[in-house]
Amino acid sequence: MTGHIRQCPNDHTYTLLNVCPKCGTETVSVHPARYSVQDRYGKYRRLVREWSR
């Protein structure tokens, strides 16, 4: 157990486990990526976000 809160993408259950206790799928971290002034890939993430709208 890492101590960081995670969320199941299927049923939106919050847990500390790597696997959802309800449905058994892998959970994802709910924390955003760290901010860095020297972000090499920020331009590409913003482009993907624009295209996905």
UniProtKB/TrEMBL annotation:
Pfam families in the cross-refs: Nop10p
GO MF annotation terms: snoRNA binding
GO CC term, one of those recorded: ribonucleoprotein complex
Classification via InterPro entries: H/ACA_rnp_Nop10, H/ACA_rnp_Nop10_sf, Nop10_arc-typ
SUPFAM superfamilies listed in its UniProt record: Nop10-like SnoRNP
GO biological process: one example: rRNA processing
UniProt entry tagged with the keyword Isomerase: no
Keywords associated with the record: Ribonucleoprotein, Ribosome biogenesis, rRNA processing
Family stated for the protein in its record: Belongs to the NOP10 family.
Function: Involved in ribosome biogenesis; more specifically in 18S rRNA pseudouridylation and in cleavage of pre-rRNA.
Record-given protein name: Ribosome biogenesis protein Nop10
Organism encoding this protein: Methanorbis rubei
Taxonomic path: Archaea, Methanobacteriati, Methanobacteriota, Stenosarchaea group, Methanomicrobia
